[in-house]
Amino acid sequence: MCATGGSGLSTLKYGTSKENVRSMLVVTPQGELIRTRAKTRKSSTGYELNALYLGAEGTLGLIVEITVRIVPLPKLRCGAVVRFPSVGQAAQTTSDVVAMNLSTLLRCELMNDEGIKVTNTVFKTTLPCAPTLFLEFVGNRKEEMLSDWDSFRARAVANGAESHTFAEDGAQLDALWDARRGCYLGAMRYRGLESGTNSKEKVYVGDVCVPASKLSECIAITEREFKKARFPCVICAHIADGNFHCLIPFQESERAALLALEDKVIGHAIALGGSASGEHGVGIGKQKYLILEHGGAHIDVQRRIKRALDPLNIMNPGKIISWDPSDAERIGPQRPELARL
């Protein structure tokens, strides 16, 4: 989580992993052990080294210890699923509710209609096939949680929600959330069950992030592109963050077509002001998109940092930033297939 700057389902309430790390011990490429900062809430004594190493994917040093912020475990849980005619209405509701700052709302996740269809097929659930928000509220006072749910429901109804199902306790809630938790396994098994072969497939996992105001537009473009190419498109979104994962089952013979679609989807996300990766990182596979997202000057700054701290290139070499400028950097930020966006 620290190496990629990953997040999770509870970012809405508690923030990303980066926001919850107070301090780290890091082994440098020279074999020295350093502490990034004091374990205090506030520190203003030089460069913020936490920010440097978090998300660096091990290319600048090896994280061996972390000190994290902790919060009390709430005693009570409840939640709901809310169905909408469109992703846009679900996104608008989420935007409205985030602005209301409901203190007990822990999670707000979206699955698209095809994601619900896949879950019903694989896990024998009977959820209506519609864009669906999955909610979880936590706290120590039931009346406060129910008040926040009432506020959420009122906004959802005002934005055209078709129906909802409420779970009063944790056990009921876990049953409602099974669809969201099983989306990856569902995508893996879906086409095998549909074809009667019961085979499992590889699953491509996307990870773009866009401004919340652009989420519904980006999801609509993504669904259209994959459906046009006859791929099932399961979408699970950390909708309050503008971050969504498209889970696409594929055979090896379909890899080239899938990667061409990845170029289009990530290109659209970046054109909408977004990022090629919200939480999974760059590695090798997403390096080619950095020039589109950041431009050459930004990449040059990152490369200078890498070369200064790891001059022998021994820390996870070849990841995130290439040692030498790529052809795309030399040519410029635009690639022909994305120039029309």
From TrEMBL:
InterPro entries: FAD-bd_oxidored_4_C, FAD-bd_PCMH, FAD-bd_PCMH-like_sf, FAD-bd_PCMH_sub2, FAD-linked_Oxase-like_C, Vanillyl_alc_oxidase_C-sub2. One of its GO terms (cellular component) is mitochondrion. Pfam families: FAD-oxidase_C (PF02913). Its cofactor is FAD. It is an enzyme of class 1 (oxidoreductase). Its EC number is 1.1.2.4. GO terms for molecular function: D-lactate dehydrogenase (cytochrome) activity; D-lactate dehydrogenase (NAD+) activity; FAD binding. Keywords: FAD, Flavoprotein, Oxidoreductase. Gene3D superfamilies: 3.30.465.10, 3.30.70.2740, Vanillyl-alcohol Oxidase, Chain A, domain 4. Residues 1-73 form the FAD-binding PCMH-type domain. GO terms for biological process: lactate catabolic process. Belongs to the FAD-binding oxidoreductase/transferase type 4 family. PANTHER family: D-LACTATE DEHYDROGENASE, D-LACTATE DEHYDROGENASE, MITOCHONDRIAL-RELATED. This is D-lactate dehydrogenase (cytochrome). It comes from Ostreococcus tauri.
